[in-house]
Amino acid sequence: MARRLLKYKNYDIHSITTATPDGRRNANIAMWITQTAMGGKMLCVALDKTDYTLELVKESGILNVNLLAEEQTKLIARLGRKSGRDTDKFKNLACETDERGCPYLTEAVGYVQCQVTGSADSGDHEVVVCEVLKQTVLHPEKKVMTHHFLREKGLVRG
Ligand SMILES: Cc1cc2nc3c(=O)[nH]c(=O)nc-3n(C[C@H](O)[C@H](O)[C@H](O)COP(=O)(O)O)c2cc1C
């Protein structure tokens, strides 16, 4: 059977990182993220309703959107196929914390610091609306990881 139209779309691959005031933190893999206002002022992030990331994002109201580089393929299994409820995803993970105490991945192309301003129901995901506070480019020389790249490498299906 032919692939359905939305499967032709490509997406950049990110990790959403967050931390609560009492020190719990998490990181996932997320591709359904887009800018939604001129000048890069707002972003929307679709987060799975059952995942630990959404639970912590709702508590903390802050997150970083880390734009992953092609060389970070090991993070797919580590952050995107396990839950932070069961494993410490930060063990040996290259990261620092920003001035808010929110982690960011130091080997990513860069990261966007966000403040949550609202959310909307979206089926099995929740769309989290964010104001962009700051954008930081860490490694302009690196190539952005995309869903098509992961498919070519056999790391995702569909
Ligand atoms: C390529 C890829 C793309 C993904 N995109 C999303 C996404 O856009 N939103 C989301 O909530 N989860 C997405 N996931 C799934 C989560 O990363 C995954 O469920 C993760 O284990 C959640 O961990 P947590 O329970 O620690 O939050 C994606 C996973 C992969 C491998």
Gist of the model:
This protein has 158 residues and is mainly beta.
Describe this structure in words.
This protein has 158 residues and is mainly beta. It has 3 helices and 9 strands. Strand 3 (33-35) and strand 4 form a beta hairpin. It has one domain (5-152): Roll (Pnp Oxidase, Chain A), CATH 2.30.110. Strands 2-1-5-8-9-4-3 form a 7-stranded antiparallel sheet, with helices on one face. It has helices spanning 52-60, 74-80, 147-152, and strands at residues 14-19, 25-27, 33-35, 42-48, 62-67, 95-97, 103-105, 110-122, 125-137. Bound molecules: flavin mononucleotide. Residues 13, 26, 28-32, 46-48, 51-53, 76, 80-85, 125, 150, 156 line the site of flavin mononucleotide. One of its GO terms (molecular function) is riboflavin reductase (NADPH) activity. Belongs to the non-flavoprotein flavin reductase family. Pfam families: Flavin_Reduct.
